[in-house]
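Hi U.,

Before I forget, here's the chain from the pilot set. I'm dumping it here mostly so it's searchable later in email.
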Amino acid sequence: MNIVFRADASNLIGSGHIMRCLTLASELKKHNHEISFICKKMEGDLVDLIKDNNFIGYSISNSKWEEDAIETINILEKINPDLLIIDHYSIDIKWEKKVSSFVSKILVIDDLANRQHHCDYLLDQNFYLQENERYKNLLNANTIQLIGAEYALLRNEFTENKKGLLKKNIKNFFVYFGAADISNETQKVLSALIEISKDFEITIDVVIGYSNNNKDELYGICTKYPFINIHKQTNEISKLMVKSDISIGAGGSTTWERCCIGLPSIVIPVASNQVLPMEELSKAKAIILIKDPSIDDYKQVILKTLKMTLSEINQLIQNGFQIFDGLGVKRVTKIIEEMK
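Structure:
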C-alpha cells in the first residue's frame, strides 16, 4: 500500500503526533508499504527526523485549513495514496471531506473527541474506563472505531525490554518531559530531587528534548552534580528506563511506554488533552498523578513515593502491565493490511 501521514510538530505543538506516527510508519515499512509524511513548515517541525528515518517528507505552508487542504491535495494527486492517516487536533470533518475524494481510505488518530470526523477508521489509543460512548455523534455510522490501550502505538523495544517487578528500594530516577517541555517541569523536578539528595542516596538520568528552550540552563544545573546524568533526545530511552527504578514525566505516549516496560511513574499532565487519560490511569492505580505541581509539591510526592513499600510499587507495575501489552502497533498494522 501507498500510505501518507498528515501530522505536525513544532516547538509549540510538541513532538507527540509525529513520534507516534513514526512508530506506526516504521512497523508498516517492515511490511513493505510505501510511506510518506506531509507536514507544515514550522520551527521544530521534525521533518529532518522523518527523513533520518528514511521516509519521504513533504512540507506545506503554515496556513489556515482550506489552504492546508489544497496544498495536501496537490501532493496526494501526485503520489496517489491508498490510505491517508491524519494525526492532528486542528483537522476536522471540513478538511477531511475536502481531501477524501483524493484518497481511497482515511484513518484518523485522535484522543480529544471534541469535533466531528469524516473517516473510515478512528484510532484513539488512550486508556478509558468508559470508552463506548466517547465518539457518539462525532463519526459516520460506518466508521470503524479502534479505541483503547490495546491499540497504543508503542515501539517494539518497550515489549522486548520489560523490567519485571522491583526488588529493591527506589534509588534511580528517570526524568523526561518530552521534546519541548514548555512549562520547564524538568527544572522543577531537578530542584526537588537535588533537595532530596541531601537526605537520600539517589541517581538521576534526565533526557532533554529536541525543542527544549531551556536546555543550556538545564545542562548548567546538571553538570554541577555528579549523581545527575544528562542525555540529549535519544532513541535509546528504553535502555534508560530499564536501569531506572521510577520515572517522573509528562502524560501522553511516554506514559504508555513506561507502563509497558514496567517503570512506575509520577505523571504530570502538561497539556489539557492529557488530563482525562492520566486521571483514568490514576483511578486504575497504574500511575501516581500530580496536577500543576510546584517544586514543593514535587518534593512532597517524591518523598512519599520513596516511603512506599515494594508491594505498593509493584502493584503499580502490575496494573500498568495489564493495561499496556505493547502489541498495539502490530494490531493496527494488521487492521490496515486487511483494509479493502
